[in-house]
């Protein structure tokens, strides 16, 4: 948790101070993506310079029609929109306490998170339930629930929470800002909550993105050996209930997985994938980022998903397509090859 006033953020980041001092004492206690931000959250919008108001573009996953309903405590927007702001207020964003035009909203958000979250966030002290079993070689700095089992050489960092009945078998590492539900099983070598593989360009340099939103995992999930679930940037990576992952599965930053997901060995999803309930990936399936995998989709082994998939269908091949189409294509190619 952290708490900081708007005035401190603006002053520390050398941003323009409003003449109306009445808005400066506003308390900010969180951060989030634009589509999930609350009244006391910090967020950002990269804008779209193609239109006069910029509201026709993609806003981090929020459609133009939904943009007017955005709520935030502090919102970084491109400097292009300064003409629409008066002392941090804008008619375009009536539910935002303070609109702050900057040269690069993405970089401003990263700067804010490094200064006010990474360096100042205070975590709950270590707390281990009396009925929990913790191996002598384990390091536990977070919270461990009733009847949980923490095996040899596991690390539960400060700011992590392990739910009741959950088992970390051996050499499992759980990073800060990770919340794991009840009755989950993590086999040897699983890592939950490391920084995602994210970079951005600023002033000609490649800069590393901090991923400080952590991971949220539901109940009754299982993770086989050496799986990795990366932390989100401004919103957590989310996995629902009753999800099961085979060995060497990768779930990248900002992904949102529903309930009853099955992913076989060596499959993975890139950043910001939305996977609806009841999806099944066979072995070796890989998905590009920023896609939606519809409810009940099944993807055959070794397929490569390059675009969003419609609910209830079975897909195969690279690029992945409906399996009947893929089968006919394979037969035709073989026939052509024999000519």
Automatic annotation (TrEMBL):
Organism: Fibrobacter succinogenes (strain ATCC 19169 / S85)
NCBIfam families for this protein: PRK00892.1 (NF002060)
Keyword Oxidoreductase part of the UniProt annotation: no
Keyword terms of this UniProt record: Acyltransferase, Lipid A biosynthesis, Lipid biosynthesis, Lipid metabolism, Transferase
Protein name: UDP-3-O-(3-hydroxymyristoyl)-like protein
Keyword field contains Acyltransferase: yes
InterPro entries (UniProt xref): Hexapep, LpxD, Trimer_LpxA-like_sf
Source taxon at top rank: Bacteria
CDD domains hit by this protein: LbH_LpxD
């Amino acid at each position: 948790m952290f708490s900081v006033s708007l005035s401190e953020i603006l002053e520390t980041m050398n941003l323009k101070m409003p003449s109306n001092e009445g808005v400066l004492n506003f308390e900010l206690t969180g951060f989030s993506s634009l589509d999930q931000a609350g009244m006391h959250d910090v967020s950002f919008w990269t804008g779209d310079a193609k239109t006069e108001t910029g509201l026709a573009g993609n806003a981090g996953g929020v459609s133009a029609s939904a943009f007017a309903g955005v709520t935030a405590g502090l919102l970084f927007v491109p400097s292009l929109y300064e003409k629409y702001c008066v002392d941090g207020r804008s008619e375009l964003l009536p539910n935002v306490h303070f609109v702050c035009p900057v040269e690069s909203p993405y970089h401003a958000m990263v700067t804010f998170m490094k200064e006010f979250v990474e360096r100042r966030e205070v975590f709950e002290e270590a707390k281990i339930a009396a009925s929990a079993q913790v191996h002598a070689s384990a390091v536990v700095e977070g919270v461990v629930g009733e009847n949980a089992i923490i095996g040899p050489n596991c690390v539960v960092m400060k700011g992590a929470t392990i739910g009741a009945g959950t088992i970390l078998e051996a050499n499992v590492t759980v990073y800060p800002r990770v919340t794991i539900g009840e009755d989950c099983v993590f086999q040897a070598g699983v890592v939950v909550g490391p920084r995602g593989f994210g970079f951005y360009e600023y002033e000609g340099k490649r800069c590393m993105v901090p991923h400080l939103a952590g991971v949220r995992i539901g109940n009754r999930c299982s993770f086989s050996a050496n799986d990795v679930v990366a932390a989100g940037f401004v919103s957590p990576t989310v996995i629902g209930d009753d999800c099961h992952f085979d060995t060497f599965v990768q779930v990248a930053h900002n992904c949102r997985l529903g309930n009853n997901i099955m992913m076989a060995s060596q499959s993975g999803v890139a950043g910001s994938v939305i996977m609806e309930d009841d999806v099944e990936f066979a072995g070796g399936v890989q998905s590009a980022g920023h896609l939606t995998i519809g409810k009940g989709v099944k993807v055959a082994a070794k397929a490569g998903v390059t675009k969003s998939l419609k609910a209830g269908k079975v897909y195969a091949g690279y690029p992945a397509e409906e399996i009947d189409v893929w089968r006919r294509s394979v037969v035709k190619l073989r026939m052509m090859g024999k000519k």
